[in-house]
Each structure stands twice: as C-alpha cells, then as structure tokens.
Design a protein that fits this description.
Two copies of one chain form a homodimer.
Chain A lengths: L1 H8 L6 H5 L10 H18 L5 H20 L4 H25 L7 H10 L3 E3 L11 E3 L1 H20 L4 E3 L4 E3 H7 L1 H4 L1 E6 L6 E3 H15 L5 H12 L6 H11 L13 E4 L3 E3 L7 E4 L4 H6 L1 H7 L6 E10 L14 E11 L9 H4 L3 E5 L1 H5 L5 E4 H6 L6 H16 L7 E5 L11 E9 L2 E10 L3 H10 L5 E15 L3 H8 L3 H13 L1 H14 L1 E4 L2 E4 L5 E13 L2 E8 H12 E4 L2 E7 L10 E5 L7 H13 L4 E3 L6 H10 L4 E5 L1 H6 L1 E6 L5 E5 L3 H10 L4 H7 L2 E2 L21 E6 L2 E6 L12
Parallel strand pairs in A: 3-10, 12-14, 24-25, 24-26
Antiparallel strand pairs in A: 1-2, 4-9, 5-6, 5-7, 8-9, 10-11, 11-21, 12-13, 14-15, 15-16, 16-21, 17-20, 18-19, 22-23, 26-27, 27-28, 28-29, 30-31
InterPro entries (chains A, B): aa-tRNA-synt_IIb (IPR002314), aa-tRNA-synth_II (IPR006195), aa-tRNA-synth_II/BPL/LPL (IPR045864), Anticodon-bd (IPR004154), Anticodon-bd_dom_sf (IPR036621), Gly-tRNA_synthase/POLG2 (IPR027031), GlyRS-like_core (IPR033731), tRNA-synt_gly (IPR002315)
Subunit structure (chains A, B): Homodimer.
GO biological process, one term (chains A, B): mitochondrial glycyl-tRNA aminoacylation
Chain lengths: 757, 757
C-alpha cells in the first residue's frame, strides 16, 4: 500500500482518513465512529445516491433560503413571505427524505449483522480476557476460513493467472530502508498532549469532534456560519502543525479533562523496535509490503531473465501505530495487505492482455466529475483509456482485473466504484491514481489503490544504495541524438554561485528530454532568457554539444504500477454485502457467500442423534474431503431446522442430510442455502456435483434440473417436511419415523446414473 | 510453538538449540554453522546410522585404547605392544569409516543444492541492497509458491479434515499476556559483553567455539581430557549464569577483540515495542502463536457449543531476537509456525479416530533407547500407546497424523523419526513430549513438537485474569465421595509452624486424589507416620470428613495436546529431501517436489519462438487455469532442453510442449520431470489428466499406460528427439522442422476418446 502512504508524504493530504486504516469487523460501533464516517462520506454518498439528485435538492434549499432572507431584509411580510417559507420547508423536507433514502444504513440491518458477526465469532477483540488492546482484533473460525479463501482466490486470480513473481519478505525492516522510502520522516499524524497529564490525542480528531459538538449544541446557527465550521472540519487533517495549533486555540479546544493542550507535533505511526542485542539497530514493523519488493527488484529482474514488463506480488502484514484507533474496525493497528508492483517501460505502458478486459464496464468517478457533476459514469475501460480518462492500458488493465476479482469473491457490483485522485491528492511524480471504493453502511470505503507511481520507488533506493535499478531492452539498431551541455560554466558560476550545481543538474535532465530542450531553446532564442528550476538563465550561458550514436540497447528505470489491496477492508465489505435476514424473520441471519469463498462448503447433518446415521455421514465427509470440498458435520441433538439456521449464519452454501431413507438406499438430500431448495441424489453422485458447484461455479439451477427436488416447508421447526410437489414432476410421498419426517419421490430413482456436467 | 519455549522456561534446557530457531534456506552456510550442527547431532546421527553400529565401533576403540594404556603402564613392550597398537589403529580407522558413511553430507551434493537455491531465487537475504540484516531472509518466487502449497496442504490435512477451529490472532501482544505465560521473565539466552566496547555475545556460543578451537589446536590431547571438554561444551546452554561465568573465566575466554567479558546475564529474546502514542504500553512481537489461542479458549469453547474435546489451530508468524543468528538458516529472527491446541479431558485422552492410524508404523527414539541402545525402533503407534511408550491416544494420533502430513508433502520417511524428550527436558507439568526430527545434511533437525502440556496454559491465564477456563461435561447422575481434612490443626501448627500452610495445601490436594489418599492412610495406619511434601506427619494429626453427593456435571480444566510445526524448517528439509542432480550431470539440479506441493504444476513450451505456437499455448494455459492447475509459459528463445532444465530446477513436475504437429491436430507432448518420459495426447484431454496427476495423486505410470509414449533422447541439446520405440507398442516416426525434431506415433491416435480415470 505504498500508494496510500507515499502519497501522503508528498501531497496535500486531504483524504488521509480513507487511506490510513484497515478494516476489521468488530462488535462495537461507537456512535462517534458512525458520525465520523457519515460526515466524511456524506457529500459523496449523497451525490451518488441511486438516481436521486441530492445535490440538486440541496441547491434548491440554498436558493430558497436566500430568497427568504432577502424577502425579510426587503421588509416583505404577509402571505407572500409565508408562502416562501412554506416552500423552503418543503424543499428541506424533500432533501431530508432524499438523504435518508440515500443513506445506505437504511437498507442494511446493522443490528442483526453485528449480532451475528459477534455471536458466531467472526471477530474477537484481541486479548479480551486480559483487557484487550485498542485497534487489535482476532479473526475467529468463520472469518479465518473466509479470509483464507479470499487470499487463495487472489493468488489464483493475480499471481498464478498472470505469472507474477510472488515473494514473502520480512515484517521487521531496518531503519535504512524506511528512511530511504520516506516513512521515517513523513509517515506521521499530528498529535497534541494534555499539558497537565501528558495524555495524547490525535489533533485533527479533537478538532472534528469539537465542531460536531458545537453544531449539535447550536442547531439554530446560521447556515453560512455552520458551513464555515464544516469547511474547517473537512480540512482538519490537511493543516500544517502551526496552522492546526492556531485553529485549536481559536476554538478554545481543551483536553478531555479540560486542561490545556500542547502545540501539535508529528507522531510517527510506525512500531519501532531494536533488532539484535546491541539495542542500537533500530528497526520497524513494515507499514506496507511494497518496500520488500522494491529492494529485491534487481534479483526479480534476473529471475525474469532480464525482461520487463513483469509483476511482483506479496501478501502479508502491515502495521500502523494509530494514535486513536477508537473501537471501529476501519482503523486497526495490524492488517493484511496484498500488493502488486508491475514494472513497465515508462513510455510503453500498453498491456498485451488489455483487449481481454477492454469491454468491461466500470463505474468511474473521475476528477472532473468529482469537482463538477458529482456523478459517476459507467464506461468500458477500453473507452476510458482511449479518452485519456484513465492514464494508460496497464493501469486500466489492473482496474478491470480488480473489478473482476471482487465480483468473483461475491462483492456487489452496484456498490463498487473507482474514484480518481484529485491532482492535489497525488504525489508529484505519480501519473494517475484510482481507488476502488466499496460502499458499506459506513459509506464509501477505499479498499484497493491503483497507482501509477512512475519511477519514484526504484530511484530513491538506487540513489541511496548506489545499486543500479535499471532494466535494458534491445532495440533495432538506430541512430540516436545525444545532447551534452557545452555552455559558459564560468559565467554560470558567477551568476548562480552556490546554486550552480542545482542549475547544472536541471540542465543535465533537460539534455535527456528532447521536446523540453527544444522548447527551452526556442524561448532562449526568442526572449534571450528562460526559467529553469526556479532560476533565470540567459542565452549567453547556454550551448549544447550534439552527437549522433548507433544504439541497440536502451537502459531505463521502470515505472511501477501498483494495485494495493487492503484485505481486511475487502473482507469486511464482503461480510456486509453478503449479509441478509430471512424474509419475515430478522432473527435468522444469513451470509450469502458464494461457494468458492465460503469457509465451509457443505454441512453434513444426520437427521437425528440416532447412531445409525453416523457411518454414512462419515462416508460423505470422506468422499467430499477427497475432492477438497470442506465439510463440517453437526451431529448435535438440536432440530434440523436449527442446524440449517446455524449453517446459514456462517454462510455454508450446501447441506447434506442423512435420513432413514439414506441408510436404506444410499441417497441423501442436498439443500441450497439461499433458495432453501433441496434435491435428492445418490451419495456417489455428491463429489462430482459439489466439485461443479463449488469449484467450477455451476449454477444451482442446473442441479435442480438434474436431480429430483424435494421441499421442506418448515425450516424453523424440527426439520419435518410437509408433502410437496416435486419441482420436476415426480410425485413425493412423506415418511415419518422417529419423530422426524422427510419427503422423497414416490418412485425410486436410480440417482447413480445421473451425471452432473 | 509453546512447547519449545515453555519447556525452556521450567526445565533443564539442555536441548535449547534445537528448539530455539526456525529454518530458512540461505545461500551461505558458514563452516562454523556446519561444525555447530555436526557437533550437536554427531552422537545421535552416528548411533542411528543406517545399519552400521557406530556406537559399538566407538566402544571397541575405547576398550582397545584402555588395553594399550594398561600394557604401557605394565611395562609391556615389543611385538605384543605393537600388535595391540595396530589393533587400536585399525579400530579407529573402522570407526572413522563408519562415521564418514553415516554422515548424511556424503549422499547430498550441498554445493549443487546451494547453487540452485540461490541462483533460482528460492531465498534472498532480506534488504540485501541496504546491507542486509542478520537472521532475516525473504522467500523468492519458487519457495513462496512451495510454502503456500505446504500451508494449504496443512490446512486441509489438519484444519479441514479434523474440523479444527482456525484463528488468526495478532502478532502484537501486550505485556500482560506474555508476563502471564512466563515469556517476559524466562524467554532468555545468556549474554556477555565486551567490557571495553560493549559488543554483545551469546555466552554459550563463545564457550562452544572456544572449545572447538582448543580441540582443533591440540589434536594430540588425551582422549579423556578432550572428552571432558566435550562434556562441558555439550552442556554450554544448560549452565546457570554464575556457573557459566566461572567456566568462561576458567577457560580464560575473551571477546573477539581480546578484551575481558562481563558476567553472563539473561537477555530477553522478544522484540519489544510500544503500542499507542503514550509510549507506556509495552508490547512484544509474539514468540509463538499459541498464546492467542489460549486466551480465546472461552470463546472457542462456546463456538464449539461447549463440547470438549476440540482443537484450535493457527498459522502465523513468530519472532525471536536472536543474539547471534550467524548466517545459518536454522536460527532466524522471523518465521512461520503452524500450531494446534487440542483441548481434551485430562483423564480421557482417548481419540475417536485413533483406530484409523493405529497401524501406522513410526520410527520412535524413546527415552530409554536414547540413554541405552542408542537405536530407534519401528513400531505401530497402536502398539506404542498400548505399551505405554507414548503416553496417550491423542498424543499418538497427532504423531501419526504429522507423519502422514510430512509424507504427503514429499518428505523422505527414512529420514524422519520421533525423539522423546528426556525427563530432564520436560516441563514439570508435561505428561509426554515427542519431537519429529528430520534428517538433513546438518543432522537431525527438530521440525515439529508434540507435547502433552496438561492444564498448565489455561491455568496460568485463568489465575491471572480471574476468568474461568473450564469446560463441563454431563455425566450419568451418580454418587461421588468427597473428603475434607478434619484432623488436629493445633497439633499441626505446633509441629510445622510456618510450614503449616504448605502441609495443608498438600493435604487438600491429597483429598482429591483418592488412590493416593488411601495409600497415605494405609501408611499412617501401619507406620504411625508418613511423608507428605517433604514433611513427616503422624497418625494423630490426620483425620478426614467423608461425604457422598449426587453428581451430574463435571467441571474440569482441559489438558492441552500441542503439535507445533516450524514451517520454515519443514520447508527447508523438504528442499533437501527433494533435491538431486541428473545422473552423470551434476550441473543439472532437480527438485522432485510432488505435484501437489510443486509451486508450478505444468510448464508450457512452444517448440520455438515461431508465433504459430502462441494460440495453442494460450489455450493450454487457459484450460489448465480453469481447473486450478498452475502453469507457466516459457516462450524464451533458448532450446527446449534448456527450458526443461530450467523447469526442473524449480521442481515443475510436468511440461507440455506445443510443436508443429500440435498446430495440425491439437495434440501436445506431456513430459514428466523425474522419468523425463513423454506422452502425446489431445489438448482436450489435458485438464482431466492433470487434475488426476496433481490433485488426485494419480501415478504417472497410469498416464503412460493410457497415452502413447514418445521419447526425447537428448534433453541437453536443442530439444531434438531421436527415434524411439513407443513404450506401449505404437511405432514412432520422427519429424524435423525449423531446426527442432520431435517424435510422434506414426499412426494418428484419436486421443480425445482416451479418458483418464
């Protein structure tokens, strides 16, 4: 996630909140967290709300408010004023309604979600019995299995499918590496301390919370005044230390205990330790995995037989010592990332496989739309690159691949968009950046960065270590023109003195950039002087020696295009997108994980605790285990309906039930989670069918067409099934034995002869 | 790996070297490292050498040496003495020869191995271009893929097949947790510092190296004297600080610069950091993953519906701030572990699936054999448990499962054994411990610990946090007898004074242990007094109040049985066991990874750089990708033979070659790595065949029986194949085009109709 941080190092950091943290589901969403996220994302959320132009409604309110104020000023009274005020009230109500409709929390039962996530141990506060640690969470069994499958899918979708070079580098990182990358100096948040107690606070958060409280306490505050406070609030994390200090003083903000605060000062967010016994070798826990790949560039290039382009990838941990992680899951101190560094010729960013994805439609929220219409557009990535909206094919290729990956693991495409970084957000060297944002009940969350970082990363390490970080490529033998400065150095020395070195460096750089050189020369010829790197040079100083050489090899520092995944955020978003409650029963939570990522693929239930079912249950588990279909047998004494519900809660897509008929004829029922439909088939046919459903993404529909459908009408009860017409026409009779009933076709079906494609 | 460390905390730590580190392949094996390992493992290695009784030969040398010395002492001279000396010389030669044969380095080409491992980027020193950091290594692409597959196999073999509850806990761990576990106080090595420069050294290593040098410099040293030095050396890491200080002084050991050394003092091996901005919350990087599972016991139990036994598992990192990691790969500072904590009733350690493994033959090196014969025994785990050699079924079950796992990933069964911990190695609370040791060119390396840790871990956390860590089980309602001390406390007070509390505690413990209580009472009745916890109590003091109660539920603190895998060491051992060079060509290294763990399953080669081959190559890649078979296409211009060799070097088991015939008839050749045999088959038949070979572990033999075999005679050359008889009888004709030749059956074969099982 170098993009996240490196951008912050060198830019106006006005989106730092979204880039800073990592998601991890938690049981406690503080009201403060919710407010924080809603506030940050309100404008954007509203703008992009489904079809309703919230911005237009807001503008109408603003206009009508102005009208009313003007009328009052002009002394208008009576019916005319009353009508205008009524119109304003109406406009405000329309806006409020639209905003409420746009708020994603309304379509999502967070209470049921949180209850299920906590109760079924998707997530636990780390070291809970010892009092816990803010910002640290453990993944319990269902989330752990889900994450393993997401990571596995990622590895197949990116590393294996694209022949990427995967590495595993260490988390412990020595000072020199992170000093070079800029993290030691710039990877900071502004902190203030209670001068009496020393208690630390994140300065921007204090300001934001203070303004929230101020506005809540003064609902009658004039709109313009409130808007001014909001403007300050929105920029809270963009101020320089002294600016922010002045603002905190202006607002009279104190510590939680009411004491004075220190001046804001930068606090480095890396966890520091010492490596080795001397206590002198400072090291850090890496804030991103990318640096490990950059420092290995030379060896990776060699592994790839010297050829560029190629991509390296790494899945691993990152760490951030947050000042105030609060309880939310979107800012944690330890998180999993998956990063790709695609090395490519800086002037040839075409991608050979781009045609494969060119027709993929993405939802793009470009720079101009963010500043203008406030609306996203749906456009093929091919058109977006052609139009220059997305800088180049390789960047566009990865955006499309990310979209496909997220769809593959089951993310809702309607709640995904790519937001382009504003010019002020990007590092000076970066060519273009697009964040995949996923809509959750907390608003739009940045989950995957896509950055064209140019040559920056390789260059800083090369400069520091004096190790060449270049690739070469053969070209057709051709004549090439070279320029070398050949002007009046003495005159330059007299003019620029100590700055001569800087001017010379600028001239050397100019020598390699022929179009710029020509423009510069033209200007010198016309005006007699020209600006260069902040200095004015004149015609008399400048001359060039021009040579022509036969060239067969070109050396270059590759550009880096970096897709960077916050796996924890992806995991959390997927949990939200997958959750629903059974219609008419909010107590029954279900995760609709697709079979490929579901932690358990198939539950196995004996109809009751009767020992007669055990051998067949074991056989089913064994058969499915042999084809790598993960199963879990629940032989607890509770009703079948209760066990179905339990399996639903952790998103198990299929369930096999072994009943009395099974013991007789080796057939079982197979139930699909979302439709709750059941089919009956021979045990021997299960492996092929489940391999198709789980690994080959066959549709359940196909299974119901091949095998007889049986239906259980009361999943809530004891698992007994009322008679039901079999969907494909075969009649069903009902048997009842040992207190449990099940349906089956009246005529025996030789399921062993049915084959699933 | 709690076993490794917790054992150290509470025991005579005479095997600390083997338990302390983690393996990771490296390019540089220092001579020192090699010596260290050979020394540590020499006795054991020699004893277990294949069939040759090295110990007996050594004993013969000792006896003959004694005879010669006695003869000299007795004044014997002349022929008689000469003959005795000759016999001694002969015995020494026989011993030397046996030892040389037993040394595993002789059957393993380490130079070729290291060359391949480094050249093909299995491993890289971390942050190499910035000067590197001792004890940190990165895994490059082939090792990274291999490790991912080992971990995936582990997850399927243990977590999924056994319904374990997998968790992912954080690496950052607060002080309180590791203080409770004992790591803050006891997870140390002894360190000395150069008093002049402050340079730190690991004290035991200094002593060991000094004795090595001493013995090398004095080859004529009398055997007994040398043996005494060796004895000191073997115990180097078992001395208390003051003992070790005295020994360092006795040997006159100085620092590397010749300066005096400080007294040895304990150095904690955990990486320390602070969590949060206050700088006061001390945290550490976890030294093992186990603690995360222990502190979550309550929630895991609830997740498992309150039922015991169950197992929790975790795969993740561990960290050790080694004082002197040297360059070796067996002591690194950051490593991957996979740990299982199986919670079970302390008095019911039967395992329901034990019958499944009872007949598995394991090589056991029991406590008595280590002290006696020096020989291992091959015995079924069923017999071992029945005989009481292995303490209980659950421990035995996991030992067998570990053996099966290691065999599954391709470890050589002849180079695996289980070594039981000596009584002095075990923690006082532990019931039994067996280490899976794997033989490498460095000797026997402990790779997996299997420990029955009784209730220790849950108890310490429960005590500290006051959170109950107990499970309950229903029992048939039954009467149970309870005893309560009811004797003469006054008399005890007079007798034991300050010790009364200790005696009372011992009596309370006795009250719960009915057989011990009965024996104690019998002794009191017979002798009038008895020993208890080191005190003598007499008949007149002791009486009990006996009650009977109806009991339906039993509460208990579960015992923990812990298999703990050092994944890095497993990975390294597998690399060694898998490596060989082609007969007659030491330049051609091959890794014989089985298809299931190989990082790339199938290489795809166009016969030449001719563009005509590309579409079919892409199609093959796509077809195989769709069934999750990882491929890598090598379309570089070098010869086919060279590309086969390259694929061999990273252990790719299969290679598809697309040639001119392919373009005509959609058939390709498939080459198997170890036999170098090739078959020809339709492209459409590839997915099924490779799924069988890779995921279903079908034998290559089956493939050669189903499809026509073609043979390339010169893999070293340009990939041209001489005419060869097709194994299954079909004649072969040779075509030669574009400078490359290949064999194919003379008659067209409709391969599309051939199906692989």
């Amino acid at each position: 996630m170098v993009s996240f941080h490196a951008f912050r190092l060198l830019m106006t950091p006005d989106r730092r909140h979204q880039v800073r943290a990592e998601s991890c589901p938690t049981e406690s969403w503080s009201a403060q967290d919710r407010r924080c996220w809603q506030r940050r994302t309100a404008a954007v959320t509203a703008a992009a709300a489904d079809g309703v132009d919230v911005d237009a409604l807001a503008a109408a309110v603003t206009r009508q408010g102005a009208t009313v104020r003007q009328m009052k000023k002009d002394g208008v009274t009576g019916d005319e004023l009353v009508a205008a005020v009524a119109k304003l009230t109406e406009a405000k109500a329309a806006l409020a309604q639209a905003q409420a409709q746009a708020a994603p929390t309304d379509t999502f039962d967070r209470k049921a979600f949180e209850d299920t996530v906590v109760r079924r141990m998707f997530v636990v506060p780390s070291f809970e019995i010892h009092g816990g640690v803010a910002g640290l969470f453990d993944l319990g069994p269902p989330a752990c299995g889900l994450k393993a499958n997401i990571v596995d899918t990622w590895r197949k979708h990116f590393v294996l499918a694209e022949n990427m070079l995967e590495m595993e580098c260490t988390n412990l990182t020595p000072h020199a590496v992170l000093k070079t990358s800029g993290h030691v100096d710039k990877f900071t948040d502004l902190m203030v301390k209670d001068v009496a107690t020393g208690e630390p606070f994140r300065a921007d958060k204090l300001l934001e919370d203070h303004i929230d409280a101020l506005l809540e306490a003064n609902p009658a505050m004039p709109r313009e005044e409130a808007e001014e406070h909001r403007r300050v609030q929105r920029q809270a994390d963009a101020y320089a230390p002294d600016e922010l200090g002045a603002i905190l003083r202006k607002y009279g903000i104190k510590s939680a205990l009411g004491n004075d605060l220190s001046e804001p000062f930068p606090f480095n967010l890396m966890f520091k330790t010492t490596i080795g016994p001397e206590g002198t070798s400072v090291g850090y826990l890496r804030p991103e995995t990318a640096q490990g790949l950059f420092v290995n560039f030379r060896r990776l290039l060699e592994y790839n037989s010297g050829r560029v382009p190629f991509a390296a990838a790494q899945i691993g941990l990152g760490f951030r010592n947050e000042i105030a992680p609060r309880n939310g899951l979107l800012r944690v101190r330890e998180f999993t990332m998956a990063e790709i560094e695609h090395f490519v010729h800086p002037k040839h960013k075409e991608h050979p496989n781009f045609p494969d994805v060119a027709d993929k439609v993405l939802t793009l929220f470009g720079r101009e739309d963010q500043l203008g219409s406030g609306r996203t557009q749906n456009i093929t990535i091919g058109d977006a690159v052609r139009a220059g909206l997305v800088n180049n094919e390789t960047l566009g290729y990865f955006m499309a691949r990310t979209q496909l990956f997220l769809e593959k693991i089951g993310m809702d495409p309607l709640r995904m968009r790519f937001r382009q970084h504003l010019a002020t957000e990007m590092a000076h060297y970066a060519a273009d950046c697009w964040d995949m944002e996923i809509k959750t009940s907390f608003g739009w969350v940045e989950c995957v960065g896509h950055a064209d970082r140019a040559c920056y990363d390789l260059q800083v390490h090369a400069e520091k270590t004096k190790v060449a970080m270049v690739a070469a490529r053969m070209t057709e033998p051709h004549m090439e023109t070279f320029y070398k400065f050949n002007g009046d150095k003495k005159r330059m020395g007299t003019t620029f003195k100590a700055n001569q070195k800087a001017v010379m460096a600028a001239l050397d750089a100019l020598a390699d950039d022929h179009p710029a050189l020509e423009a510069f020369e033209a200007k010198l010829d016309t005006d007699g002087s020209a600006e260069l790197a902040g200095f004015t040079v004149d015609r008399a100083m400048i001359a060039w020696k021009k040579t022509e050489k036969m060239v067969q090899e070109e050396k270059f520092t590759p550009s880096v295009i970096e897709p960077s995944f916050g796996i924890g955020r992806v995991l959390y978003s997927l949990l939200e997108h997958s959750f629903y409650t059974r219609e008419g029963d909010e107590q029954r939570g279900v995760f609709r994980f697709n079979a490929a990522v579901a932690p358990i693929k198939c539950a196995i239930f004996p109809l009751s605790a009767n020992d007669a079912f055990n051998p067949l249950c074991s056989e089913v588990a064994k058969l499915l285990g042999a084809v790598d279909v993960a199963t879990r047998t629940d032989a607890s004494g509770v009703s079948l309906g209760r066990r179905y519900a339990r399996a639903d809660e952790i998103g198990v897509p299929f369930a096999v039930t072994v009943d009395f008929q099974s013991v007789e004829d080796n057939t079982v029922t197979l139930r699909e989670r979302d439709s709750m439909a059941q089919i009956r088939l021979a045990v021997a046919a299960l492996p092929d069918l489940l391999v198709s459903l789980v690994f080959r993404r066959a549709a359940w529909q196909q299974a119901t067409e091949r095998f007889p459908v049986v239906r259980s009408e009361d999943e809530e009860g004891d698992g007994s099934a009322a008679p039901a017409a079999v969907a494909n026409g075969a009649p069903t009779k009902v048997e009842r034995s040992a207190g449990a009933a099940f349906s089956r076709p009246a005529t025996a079906i030789d399921t062993s002869t049915l084959r699933f494609p």
